[in-house]
Amino acid sequence: FGRAVAARRGCQRAFSVTAFNRASHLDYLKNMRNIGISAHIDSGKTTLTERILFYTGRIKEIHEVRGKDGVGAKMDSMDLEREKGITIQSAATFCEWKKHPINIIDTPGHVDFTIEVERALRVLDGAVLVLCAVGGVQSQTNTVDRQMKRYSVPRIAFINKMDRGGADPWRIVGQIREKLFLNAAAIQVPIGREDGLEGMVDLITMKAIRFSGDKGETITEAEIDANMVDECKEKRAELIEKLGEVDDEIGELFLAEEEPTVQQLTDAIRRATLDLKFVPVMMGSAYKNKGVQLLLDGVVSYLPKPTEVVNTALDVANEEKEVITKTDPKEPLVALAFKLQESPFGQLTYLRIYQGTMRKGEFTFHVATGKKMKVPRLVRMHSDDMEDVDEAKAGEIVAMFGVECATGDTFTDGK
Description:
By secondary structure, this protein is of the alpha+beta class.
């Protein structure tokens, strides 16, 4: 196989099976989600990731960006990141939500570090595009959008900072359509705004969902308030119309003036999102702990599982003919080095395993140099923390120590 696992069409990926004690790797992959969180600087990506880690039980306490409490957000592991309050390098982690393992890469929003976003999106299956409810679509939002389109990455849009003064989600939805040229529609309506933000109305189930408790951990579901019913019906009709433009089943129901069921609507959103024809828009406030759990539900419901992505490699032994990789641990190994990082233990190489299995202590071939090398140590990352693993199978994202290579290099087992 070639130097780069090049094209992306469709959707595929994962992390270590042993940690979740799954009976079968393929069954495990059916629940897996590999996502990136990307946005313009100061849209709240790292704050959002911190809440995701808290609600999934990956961390026990919430810490804020800039390290004001002397700890700082988990994903900002560099001292400079905590001092400046910005993300400089991509950080990887993993968690589990409702029996769905999720691998997350929190990417930088500053234009100076856009290559970090490029490297991450190259190997991810889906993404969350975060937008500020006040700032909306900004310069780096356009850059991230182009990168997602380049690598055919399905995405959910999340309008963050709904607690800020001047928050206007409908203006932001309009910008997504007009500036990013995306077929997008809200699947939620906020209950209150700014200081009065209480929760969201789910336009699919037409239920009002509110968040309470010190950290938004208490969720209550109720009927929609009478003063919001008309607005919600209007926004639901708009959602159905936008979906009907790209999905045959919903289109037929729309023309027949029939109301789709909850399942029909959910399935249509997933189909259209995976086909890159639709972007569901969700909203909330990560800082105020509102809407994050619903976003996690959206990641599970609408973004692809690893087995739904098609990736291709180049067969250097056959005039670089394109070959579709199989997310199967029994196939010959194909792994891509997508990020390098210096550490106290030497060069840390982040790998996406596209096919086959890589094992600690076994030999692998560096395609660019033709050299045979031993895999000294495999780890999976939780920001700057490391967990040793003995093997990494198709679909997983891990890191390897002690191997000299460049970004974009491919490793195989020589088969």
